[in-house]
## 1
Amino acid sequence: MASNAKGVPKSDEKPEKGNGSAKKSAPKRPNAGKENAKEDRKTKPVEAKSKKQPDTDDRRRLPRVAVTPLKSSAMPRVSPPREQPKKVRATPDRDRHSGPPSDSNELDARLKGRLDRLKMKSKEISKNAASVNKIKEVILGYLKSVEPRSKWAEFTSGSYYEKTKISHPDEYDCMFVCEMRVKVEYEETGDSAVFCSLRSLTANPDQAQLPVFHPSLLTDPQANGSAYICPLRFRDHFSRMVQTAIQRQELKGLNIMLIMGSLSSPAVTFEVRQMDGECFSLDVVPAVKLYEWPKPAKLWRCRWKPELEEQIKHPDTSGVHPFVVAKIHKKEKQRAKSGGQCFLWRISFSAAEKQIMKRTDEPTKNVCRKDILKLLKSDLEEFKNSAAPGGGHHGFCSYHLKMIFLKLLDEKPDDEFWTRENLRRSYALALRKVVGCMKRECVPNYFVHSANALDMKGVGKAKYGALVSYFESQQKIYSAGLK
């Protein structure tokens, strides 16, 4: 018979019939019911504490931690977080199958099953998209009202709009692009080739045709007598405007918080919580439009779509403009931390990438290029959610996978290689390319090959080694039986 800690039967349990020994071992006492109630009150809180509740901050996999609340709507501040799966050691295809593969047909079936599970739910997509559009409309309206000469415009970018987002529509990216009268000065050397500086064309900051929003965004005059636009000041100025726009506008049903990001990040990140407790992140990136194809990328070729290359390289006629964003160069990080002036801007090829991704899977053709990128991203997500050994971070992100994928498109331009019947072969080759780049610790920028997109500074060697081993194991599994 079940009993509590003091050997007293619980009040809601009946002794078994015909068991005389049970009656003798538990003699009836007048205060037994009260004692049972006291014991229940003592034990229940202990049981509740033993259940580890998911930490609210852990529900998001954002690298930012300091939170500054903005104006709140009428909804409650704290809602039940979405429970995260328990982290376990990453193993190839964990929880996707049981036992070793028996033949190629089984491997093909597993890949198709993985792709089915990576599809986003249409209900989540429509609900989040409505909230994102509402926030973007508020921000753009305010920017146009306070700075009409800058000609602010919205540009949607990122995996959601390129249709390569997996599992949940919980991350969105959006650029707000402005125009400036500047002279672009390129670095054109090594990893710095994807950076440039913006020299102001207005000598006197007091002139009416000042091509920036405020004189405080300019650096001090340099030895050549010119002043440059500081990317860090530009981003901070934009952040203040965006926060003001959201605070002034009542967004019903949304609780929006500013997430403090790293110093070198070009984005202003918000966490948006909806009435039902579901939340997503919105990265808002300020950018400056360029009117010419960047000189460091003049050797770039789009071999699998030559006509697309011709279109992208002429932004004046195609409207596919490159941008620059306020991502701080690694050699200027220390200067930025001490409040010094920064000069270098990161060149963004987001518009060109978006045009290329649009052409990867044309509806009339039986191809699966985007599915390969989705599978690679799911592998990286699986590893990130695991209890990988070692400290620090592994240094790899979906942007690196995208650079490798774009290069693979040029190496395999024919649609026959990317047919759905050839899914496993395409995926196995993509894994081999990823492993090769990881081992060389080099991911060339797709548009500027001399620049390495992979920064190994601060990367934990043990964790990076575990990441390489994981992708290598995936490659061995799905390459089995292929010639």
Note: The two ends are 65 Å apart (CA to CA).
## 2
Amino acid sequence: MSADLVAMWTVPLSDGVHEVQFEHGTTTGKRIVRVDNEDIIRKDWMFNLVGEENFMIGAAKCCISITSASGFTHEYMLTVNGRELKKFCENQLKVTKCWTTVLDGIDTRVVLEKDTLDVWCNGQRLDTTVKYS
């Protein structure tokens, strides 16, 4: 783990639960955004220590905001689709239903999007037919 790792977040989306890591070198301005252990953004030298880093996780628009706090410290906030992460997660609980189970020895995650009736299984959207009777 890097000494410059300053923040980690867990983002629940229909296609899975994603881990976001942010590294910020406060002496060099280095910024690295990593999603699920893959570098999405890497900026090795920046003069401005505050600002924003925008990126996507699937179809979700994400933004890490870097602001100055007291002294030489910084605060980091993640927004997803325009909402602070906590509010986004609260909304996800309202608009999705998620089940996890073990099938044939494999951890399986199934998500129903209540507004679109899309069904996801382990990150893959399934072709489904809605029948009302």
Note: The chain is about 10% helix and 55% strand.
## 3
Amino acid sequence: DDRTLFTIDKTQNDISQVGIVDDTYKILVNVQNYKPEELVIKTVNNTVKVEAKHEEKASNGHSYSTQSFNQSFTLPAGVDPETVSSALSKQGVLTISAPLPKVLKSSEVGRPIPIKHM
């Protein structure tokens, strides 16, 4: 359940988490203070950029309150930026995913390296 990722430690105030789950590179971003139309997710070369901007007009109609953030995440080597997808949960957690290349998957397990005797 992705809600617990952001409620475990409120003192940390982390807005995002990055990890690998089942051969997929995942970025989780807490965007609960933003509406879907206030979010922009894009890839630039091997970087994923998340931008959010929320504007509110004060009740007197004369002033604005703006809240925004920009975050960039570098994709692991070999991950194709064209394969990046995103999903937004009802709890306000944005999940950005990309499948890892087969090369990275097998290297995670490890490869024995023979010792050469000299």
Note: The mean pLDDT is 81.
## 4
Amino acid sequence: MIFSSVYAGHTVVGFAMYYFTYDPWIGKLLYLEDFYVMKEYRGYGMGSKILKHLSHTAVKTRCSSMHFIVAEWNKPSIEFYKRRGASDLSSEEGWRLFEIDKQYLVKMSSKE
């Protein structure tokens, strides 16, 4: 999903990339992979419009919630989401993000 605006002369000034996934405990989810509004267009409601559209999409497709990750240092984004009802699962439920990079995937896959 990509949004453009007449305020920017029909130039793309922000976007959201998402997909649907499923969690066995809570059901179908809309996972927001990437969300960005150009700095000079922030504060004009563009992000709110995009999030509203995502929320409508999630409700219309019967998702139980929307999940996403925000960098801990990105305080403005954290506050943006919290003002709209987002819960910080890392503090509320103790979830942590992990990664197994390619070298370890290769190493594990080659073990017998």
Note: The chain has four helices and four strands.
